[in-house]
Amino acid sequence: MDYTQAQDAITKVVGLMSVEDKPALVALLKRSGSLVEQSSTQTELLDAAFKAIKNSPRFRQDLSQYLSSVGTVEASADGYSNFGEDLLAKIGASPTTPNTTAAATTTAKSGTKVGNLLKSIFTKENISSAVNAGIGILGTKLQSKANATSEQNAIDYQVAAAQAAQAQAAAAAVAPAKKSWVLPVAIIGGVLLIGTIAYFAMRKK
C-alpha cells in the first residue's frame, strides 16, 4: 500500500465531504465533541475535521467506519442498500438529501461523490485498510508538531489542500464547454493558496 497516497486521499475526501456530504461530516464532528453546525463555513468544518483527526480517537474511528461504508456501497434500486444504515442512523445523518426524484435516481445508479472518489483511488477490497491507514498517518503527522503555531500551520495546510481538491472536483464536473477555463483556474487557485500557507509557515519557523 502507498501510505502517502492513502494520507493524501483522506485530505481529498474530507474536502469533498465538507461540501457534498456536509450533514454527515457535521454529525461525525458533533459526536466527537466539536461545536460545528450546519451553518458552519467550509473552512470552519475542515479546520474542525483535521483537528479532530489529530486529537479525537472517536472521530478517527467514526470517520474510518463511515468512509469504508460509503466506499464499498453497491448501487441498487434505492441506491442505499449495504450503505451502512446503522452507522448513518447512529450519527444522525443520511447519505444524501436529494431534492428531486431525478437526483435520487442518479445517486442510486452512481453512488455518492465521496464514495466514488474513494473507489477511484483504491480497490473495493482495500478501501477499508487504506482509509484506516490514511487517517492514522495523517493523525500522527499532525500530532508530531511541537507547538501550537506549527500545529495550526499544518492544519491550515491540510485545509487549503482539501479545499483545492474539492474545487478541482467541482470544476471537473462542469459542462464540457466550461472545462477549458474553469479547471485551470481552480487548480491554479488551489496551488496558490497552498503555496501562500507554506510560505508563511516557513517564515514562522
Please, could you describe this protein's structure?
The protein has 205 residues and is mainly alpha-helical. It has helices spanning 3-20, 22-31, 42-55, 57-71, 85-91, 101-110, 113-121, 127-143, 148-172, 176-204. It has one domain (3-204). 75% of the residues lie in helices and 0% in strands. Helix 9 packs antiparallel against helix 10. The longest helix is centred in the last third of the chain and has 29 residues, at 176-204. The protein starts with a helix and ends with a helix.
Largest sheet: none
Distance between the termini: 33 Å
How many domains? The number is 1
User: Structural class, please?
Assistant: mainly alpha
Q: Could you say which overall geometry the principal axes of the C-alpha atoms support? A: globular
> In terms of quaternary structure, what is this?
single chain
Kindly list the characteristics that best describe this protein.
205 residues, mainly alpha, 75% helix
Short description:
With 205 residues, the protein is mainly α. The chain has one domain. The protein contains 10 helices and no strands.
Set out the fold topology.
Elements: H1 3-20, H2 22-31, H3 42-55, H4 57-71, H5 85-91, H6 101-110, H7 113-121, H8 127-143, H9 148-172, H10 176-204
